[in-house]
Design a protein that fits this description.
By secondary structure, this protein is of the alpha/beta class. It has 13 helices and 7 strands.
Length: about 290
């Protein structure tokens, strides 16, 4: 379904019953909250039955209420401000076990990522990374931690890894100004998407580099630019970005590249173990 739910509501509004008009008005005015409600809770909030909410979802063309709620969540994810996130989290977590809720949600995101990830795209990304002339890894704001993690381990596996730091916009372009054909640009961004990261990806694409996007779904602005798209489920918990799914995807990329470089990797780490021991990089103190 190409149109977002607000457009669907506007186009179908003339045929709504009284109860459906109540639902439509609430969603239009409070979509940030409605996106995370059950059908029963939404019905209770607006004063209609749960079955009326389900019929409303079907009327809009969704396959039941879960499909409509998913559409609402996808629409709002990049729109919510930090203040709105906090308000939504309060409604979702009020009176519940926060530890259990957050970890259970992360488990769901990992399972969803595994089920929906395109295996062919994953292999294409591994091939591109393995054969890159230069590998540029870019993640800004909360995604900077993911980019740093990926770059740390890719440095053991491939030559010419460059972690692009989130500084001023001009300095980002200075760091990637030599990118070109034969190079690979890995852009990592999840809602709320970084505009600086998006512009840098466009620049890399214009220079002829192969572009890999690690993002949340096909509606992401990064997916429209990338040659290879890898989607991982992310989540908003209060003002915090929960990026367990994306981190697991990056782990899989690292391990897949490492599996293709077993012989050279063993030589690398034999050498490193000697250095680590000589310069006491790791402590052996057990006190």
């Amino acid at each position: 379904m190409g149109k977002d739910i607000l457009m669907q509501i506007e186009e179908n509004s003339r045929g709504f019953s009284k109860g459906q008009r109540l639902i439509a008005r609430y969603i239009t005015e409070n979509y940030d909250k409605a996106a995370f409600m059950t059908a029963g809770r939404l019905g209770k909030t607006v004063g209609v039955s749960e079955s009326t909410v389900v019929r409303f979802a079907t009327e809009l063309g969704y396959d039941g209420y879960p499909g409509m709620r998913k559409a609402m969540q996808e629409m709002v994810r990049s729109r919510l401000t930090s203040v709105q996130r906090i308000a939504v989290a309060k409604d979702m977590l009020d009176g519940s076990n926060v530890l259990k809720y957050v970890m259970s949600s992360d488990i769901d995101k990992l399972q969803g990522t595994l089920e929906e990830l395109d295996r062919q795209s994953f292999e294409e990304a591994v091939n591109a990374i393995e054969n890159a002339g230069h590998l540029y890894i870019v993640g800004m704001r909360s995604s900077a931690a993911l980019a740093s993690f990926m770059a740390f381990y890719m440095n053991f596996l491939v030559d010419n890894v460059r972690l692009i730091h989130d500084t001023t916009a001009n300095e980002v372009y200075e760091q990637i100004m030599h990118i070109g054909p034969g190079d690979v640009y890995v852009g990592i961004s999840y809602p709320r998407y970084s505009s600086s990261s998006l512009k840098a990806m466009r620049f890399a694409k214009s220079r002829g580099a192969a572009v890999v996007a690690l993002t949340d779904n096909q509606t992401s602005p990064f997916a429209a630019i990338a040659d290879i798209k890898l989607y991982a489920k992310s989540e908003m918990v209060s003002f915090v970005d929960s990026l367990v799914g994306p981190l697991s995807l990056i782990n899989a990329l690292i391990v897949a590249v490492a599996a293709r470089k077993q012989e050279t990797l063993a030589q690398t780490f034999n050498y490193l173990e000697g250095l680590w021991s000589e310069y006491e990089v790791f402590t052996t103190d057990k006190s």
